[in-house]
Design a protein that fits this description.
81% of the residues lie in helices and 6% in strands. It has five helices and three strands, in the order ααβββααα. It holds the Pfam family CsbD. InterPro entries: CsbD (IPR008462), YjbJ_sf (IPR036629). This is CsbD-like domain-containing protein.
């Protein structure tokens, strides 16, 4: 795996190897091995963080590797419907208009369902693209097809970005729910 294509699995392996080297150095009293092991473990943790780095912009996700993907339109529209629905529900509650409040509640729930459908679509597409890209890249590497390998590595990176975008959204929602508890 190239340095600019960090991998979660590789970071776990490197972290475990570093921890083992550190422990062995500690047991044998070899401070050089201990320091090398700690450095390897620290580097692996940075690679793991980079592997999960994503930036959300309206309607898209950009990963730490530079891959960018568009969100399924249902995610964006669902989020918008939730926002408008919540505003209607709040306004209806403030002015005492039960029908506006109920319409807002319905729109909010419909938006949640719509966003979930988009997330499922992006998650499935991301996982499929990631798997196809990984397998395709391995096959083209064996055959020496550099252009094909680059294509499949890009496919894997985009799939990973799609998947991470959904994970990012779900984590943000979970954090918001925790704050409201």
């Amino acid at each position: 795996m190239s340095d600019n294509n960090t991998s979660t699995l590789k970071s776990y392996i490197d972290s475990a190897t570093g921890a083992a080297q550190n422990a062995l150095g500690s047991l044998t009293g070899n401070s050089g091995d201990q320091a090398k092991g700690q450095a390897r473990k620290d580097k692996a943790e940075l690679e793991h963080d980079a592997s999960h780095a994503t930036a959300k912009v309206p309607g898209a996700t950009i990963s730490g590797s530079g891959a960018a993907t568009r969100d399924d339109p249902n995610r964006t529209e669902g989020n918008w419907n939730q926002t408008v629905g919540s505003a209607k529900e709040t306004l209806g509650g403030l002015v005492g208009n039960e029908s506006l409040k109920e319409a807002g509640r319905r729109q909010n729930l419909e938006g949640q369902e719509q966003e979930a459908k988009g997330q499922l679509s992006d998650l499935g597409s991301g996982m499929a693209g990631r798997a196809q890209g990984t397998i395709g890249s391995a096959v083209t590497a064996l055959t020496g097809d550099k252009e094909g390998q680059a294509h499949y590595e890009q496919m894997r990176a985009e799939g990973k970005t799609q998947q991470r975008g959904v994970e990012h959204d779900l984590n943000k929602k979970a954090e918001a729910r925790q704050e409201n508890i």
